[in-house]
Amino acid sequence: MLSREKLIDQIKLKRSFLCVGLDTDVDKIPDFLKSYPDPVLEFNRRIIDATQDLCIAYKPNAAFYEAMGIKGLQSLIDTYKYLPKDCLSIIDAKRGDIGNTSDNYAKAFFNEETTGMGFDAITVTPYMGNDSVTPYLKYDGKWVIILALTSSVGSKDFQYLETGNGFLYETVIQKANTWAGADRLMFVVGATKSTEFTNIRKYAPDNFLLVPGVGAQGGSLEEVCKYGMTPDCGLIVNASRSIIYASNGEDFAEAARAEALSLQKQMEAELQKAGII
Ligand SMILES: O=c1ccn([C@@H]2O[C@H](COP(=O)(O)O)[C@@H](O)[C@H]2O)c(=O)[nH]1
């Protein structure tokens, strides 16, 4: 489990706030891995070995594993077990349902004794409100990461609706912050929405933000840092495809490392600029 203090320590130690997204699609991994008993696990292991000194988090997206049925679930469990303990383990599952159902989603991803998976953090959709989110908060020390302003084009459909108290995404942040503190709650904010970060910091001055959308989606790391960084860093920036599919040859792990290193170097410069390291 990675507390807020430990997370900040890791950021300073590794001079990085990079999250590597393990969106592992069996159709995109190099052919030579296909002869391994579990090609997805083999791919993930090599990506993890190649990047773990450069990142502070890993984020498998549940969809890629669930799409493969029982085999995929086993790959996810075995990948979870392989994740380095000094990195935050995030399951990007975007769950949310009535209380007793959310209890079971929480059990699925947090209760290692039962399922073999004890992720540090889960992404949760806030649409169903308080009773759909609190089941995840019952697990001491686990993080809940609430979708606030997503990187998707469709974010405008609901997240920018006027509530009379600002945009819906602003209300989500304000309300969710009454359910738990910045030591348990993070928010997802897309890198493609970098100019909104100043506004978001009005409602979430201390929360860590999980920021997908640099790399393949074209978001700017520099702008995210300019508008979203706090004295504790406050950012975990994810890149998935741009790292894990940097090459689909035998050199895929080296190519992934080179991509991760390039992001880590930019992050180091931002942390120095902000006086954090
Ligand atoms: O607003 C959001 C929320 C989640 N995601 C997820 O993050 C990664 C991004 O992958 P890239 O390959 O780096 O684009 C992926 O798992 C998404 O499902 C997001 O992109 N935006």
Automatic annotation (TrEMBL):
Any keyword Lyase?
Answer: yes
Q: Which domain of life is it from?
A: Bacteria
Recorded E.C. number(s)?
4.1.1.23
Q: Which residues form the Orotidine 5'-phosphate decarboxylase domain?
A: 17-256
Q: Which reaction does it catalyse?
A: orotidine 5'-phosphate + H(+) = UMP + CO2
Provide this UniProt record's keywords sorted from A to Z: Decarboxylase, Lyase, Pyrimidine biosynthesis
Q: What class of enzyme is it?
A: lyase
Q: Which residues are responsible for catalysis?
A: K94 (proton donor)
Pathway membership of this protein?
Pyrimidine metabolism; UMP biosynthesis via de novo pathway; UMP from orotate: step 2/2
Gene Ontology biological-process annotations: 'de novo' pyrimidine nucleobase biosynthetic process; 'de novo' UMP biosynthetic process
* CDD domains in alphabetical order: OMP_decarboxylase_like
Q: Which GO terms describe its molecular function?
A: orotidine-5'-phosphate decarboxylase activity
What protein family is recorded?
Belongs to the OMP decarboxylase family. Type 2 subfamily.
Q: Which NCBIfam families match?
A: pyrF_sub2
HAMAP family with a match to the protein in the record: OMPdecase_type2 (MF_01215)
Q: Matching PANTHER family, A to Z?
A: OROTIDINE 5'-PHOSPHATE DECARBOXYLASE (PTHR43375:SF1)
* Name of this chain's protein: Orotidine 5'-phosphate decarboxylase
